[in-house]
Amino acid sequence: MSHVTDGALHAYLDGACDERERREIEAHLEACGSCRARRDEAAAVSQRASDLLSELEPLSPEAPAWREIEARAAARRGSTARRSRLRPLAWAASIVIAFGLGWMSQSLMFMARSPADMPSASAPAPRIPAPERDAVQAGRTAEQGIEEEAYTDRVGRSVGDQRLDDLAREAVADAARPRPAALQKAAETETEERASGVAEGAATDPERRDAPRQRAAEPRPEAAAAPPAEKTEIVQNRRRDLAAPFAREAAEEPSDVLAARRAALPVTVTEEVSPAEFLPVQPAEAAVWLGAPLVTLPELDLQRVEVGPGTRVDGATAGLPLVRMTYLDAAGHEIVLLQQRIGSEAEGEGDLPAFRIDPDGATSYRWRRDGYWLALQAALSSDSLRSLADRVH
Amino acid sequence: MDLSQIYREHYRSLVRFLYRRTGDQARAEDLAQEAFVRALEHQPSRPRAWLFTVAANLARDEGRRTAVRRRHLSLVKAEAEARPPEPGPEVALERREKIRRVQGALARLAERDREALLLWEEGFSYDEIAEVLGLSRGSMGTTLSRARTRLAAAYAELERDEDDVARN
């Protein structure tokens, strides 16, 4: 005779069973003393939980008048409209300034160089003077800014934002006219230098060795005219913040050093085996926390590895460390891979794999593998997430 | 759909859910009002479920930005002290301690389990909880069973640990 599960007992006590289930459970309870005892225990636990939660009653919350909520919504709509009207002006000013910088840098370059200064096959690659490097970098960040705009398309855009896109694309197309050979060579040279720097870093870090260097080595398109200053700064800051903890070139540490570091990390009041907050760590240390080798997305660009408490993530288990790996795909979209050991069989049952779609449009996909639960979070379609999950190894 | 009526009927419930979720009444009220402001912008077809979904997301985002558990302990203590005076100082102290332990026990639940339990306490059905949290309806019984069992066990453990400390 199979007994009634705890989940079914609670559903029965909550009145959430359909007629057939209810009859089956009641028939079993009549015949099974141990399940009757478990039913009574479940009822007591359910009542106990309600009693405990009833202690958490807020002081009488006085709801503001509805018109205040309406006013707040109206004010937000107004400020959004004002920003949309001002943005094209800011874009236009930024484009004019950057065009001017680009024009001046080209002028300076042609004035300084003579035919004898042009690079040859046997001469070493020239260093790019600062004004030209800035123009090339401005072009790259313009492209990143446009990619950032493409990303925000996924979460909804206003008419003003669409206008910004049009202006940006016009600027890129305008700058894509054939460029003097010297400036093109300078851009390619800087690309090669950056690629070789990435290769050196990857050689000392086994995680980065697997990261695709091809993307870094590809020459960027022609420098565009100006990105809007505000968006460039936002994208640059975001990339810098993501990459900063991972930019340190560290050799692998011995396991006893890792264990000592782990012991020295702060712990929460209620969790004794996890950091209190998400902390950036090297992949080898994250694997120690996890208790297993990390799963990875080798096709994407790993930005950051962190370890934190399970309670900081929806559906994760309190008391077990959670590893969070942040990637960027080729379009610059952020993709987060989470992994945590499944604490008990009870946690592993039921509803996996599963999708979750948040009201802001972000999607997460969660599944189990070999005693661990994994989750991918990104502003992608369900099919794309599932496809990406197949490439996790 | 009249959102002002939804507001009158469910504002207090939403604040209670957020207060239990965050431990901070002022923040709970602010997040509840924010959820209604967003509802005015989006005009959801099923406002109650939508409001609690947004509220749960706002609370989750809030938790990622701050050390919520430590704030729980200090804020719960401050709010307990702001409550109407209880008869006798010992009773008042005992109640404050109990509130702190309940908050601590809640913090030990997995986020999804905690939210499912809080939504159930706000009168949501299994179908509605599954919709708000994006889970399968079939797993609700197991989720609530686990949440209730852990809450009770965590509270008992906290109570026991504090008694041990007091005796020693």
**Whole-number mean pLDDT of chain A:** 66
Uncertain regions spanning at least 5 consecutive residues of chain A? 114-165, 179-184, 193-228, 238-253, 265-272
Largest sheet of chain A: 7 strands, antiparallel
Reading side by side through the largest sheet of chain A, how are the strands ordered?
Answer: 1-2-3-4-7-6-5
Series of H and E elements of chain B: HHHHHHHH
Indicate the mean pLDDT of chain B: 84
Based on secondary structure, the structural category of chain B is: mainly alpha
Strands of chain A, total number? 7
Topology summary:
The complex is a heterodimer of chains A (393) and B (168).
Chain A: H1 6-13, H2 19-31, H3 33-53, H4 66-112, H5 130-153, H6 159-175, H7 181-204, H8 206-209, H9 214-217, H10 229-243, H11 255-264, E1 279-280, H12 283-290, E2 301-309, E3 321-328, E4 334-341, H13 345-348, E5 354-357, E6 363-369, E7 372-378, H14 382-390
Antiparallel strand pairs in A: 1-2, 2-3, 3-4, 4-7, 5-6, 6-7
Chain B: H1 3-22, H2 25-42, H3 47-65, H4 68-82, H5 89-107, H6 111-121, H7 126-133, H8 140-167
Helix pairs in contact in B: 1-2, 1-3, 2-3, 3-7, 4-5, 5-8, 6-7, 6-8
